[in-house]
Amino acid sequence: MELWYTERGIVPGLGLSVQVSKVLHEEQTDFQHLAIVDTPLFGRMLWLDNIIMTNIKDEFVYHEMISHVALNTHPNPKKVLVIGGGDGGVIREIIKHPSVEKAVLVEIDRRVVETSKQYLPEIACGLEDPKVEVLYEDGIKYVENHKNEFDIIITDSTDPIGPAVGLFEGSFYKSCYDALKEDGIFVAQTESPFYDEELIPRVQQDIRSLYPITKLYLAFIPTYPGGCWSFSMGSKKYDPETVDLSQKPTYTTRYYNHGVHKAAFMLPNFVRDLINK
Ligand code: AAT
Question: In angstroms, rounded to a whole number, what is the distance separating the alpha carbons of residues 146 and 78?
């Protein structure tokens, strides 16, 4: 008998099914349902509340693109904050940058970090680095209590349901703005431009009301609905499209390079229309 897991719910009317060869772990944490499964197509996968979070096969695209675009736009990022991202993939990319002295991960659900370390060491490997501090609390509260501290803030959050709803609200974006230094950069994963026509314009407007430079960029992520995924950026000083990347190394990346950095901001017309709404 074949076992299939289906992601459904974030896009009404759409199901995304993956064949599962083995269920390694399932539990109800204090915040969400967590599953680790092996699959023939994507290798090991992390699911939260029946939604695909990450997997061995395509995780590099998301984790590189949410991290390196901002880290290579800022001339000297030293202190970086990640909200969510308990699997550790974003942290692994951030600490590739030699300028980074400290990376703080604020994850609401301790069990995501613990199970990722146990079952997904390829992704979680950076979490033990001495530059990394892992805190278990609500990212919304954390940013409210920090001012003028970070060069970069990255929101690697679940979809806007459950504990992540507040991570897509104007008051959270304002707190992040205040937690950034005077030349800081904010990046968030902001869902599918094809399926989430309501969220992206709203987030763009919120960011535009705070930052002089507001951008949307895209990457191709096979296991997220639609395959085309968006990231929203607010920058106080540095423009990611005009930044000179020629002196920046590309580190050991499989998706990100300087051409992709610039190309990611070239938006199809239907996406341009969304951000100008
Ligand atoms: N690296 C890709 C994985 C994720 S998981 C996002 C994480 O955000 C989860 O571990 C969840 O527990 C955490 N989270 C949710 N709300 C909060 C909060 N308020 N404070 C801190 N952490 C939070 C992203 C997957 C994207 C899926 C797209 N379909």
Answer: 16
pLDDT of amino acid 73: 98
- Residue spans of the domains in the chain: they are 3-55, 59-275
Distance from CA of residue 36 to its chain's centroid? 19
The per-residue pLDDT for 38 is 98
Fold of 3-55: Spermidine Synthase; Chain: A, domain 2 (2.30.140)
Q: Is 9 helix (H, G, I), strand (E, B) or coil?
A: coil
- Is residue 19 annotated as involved in ligand binding? no
Residue nearest atom 10 of ligand 1, based on CA coordinates: 86
**170-179 vs 199-208: helix axis angle to the nearest 10?**
40
> Quick one: fold of 59-275?
Rossmann fold (3.40.50)
* Alpha-carbon span 203 to 191, nearest angstrom: 11
* Nearest Cα to Cα of residue 155 among 209, 147, 51, 142: 142
Selected catalytic residue, list 156, 178, 183, 196: 156
Let me know if 30 is a catalytic residue.
no
Q: What is the pLDDT of residue 1?
A: 86
List, run by run, the mean pLDDT of 10-residue segments along the chain (277 residues).
Answer: 92 95 98 98 97 98 98 98 98 97 98 98 98 98 98 97 93 98 98 95 97 98 97 98 92 94 98 91
> Does 21 belong to an annotated binding site?
no
Give pLDDT, residue 37.
Answer: 98
The two beta strands, 22-28 and 33-39, are antiparallel
ipTM exceeding 0.95, yes/no: yes
Q: Is 113 in the pocket of ligand 1 (CB under 6 A)?
A: no
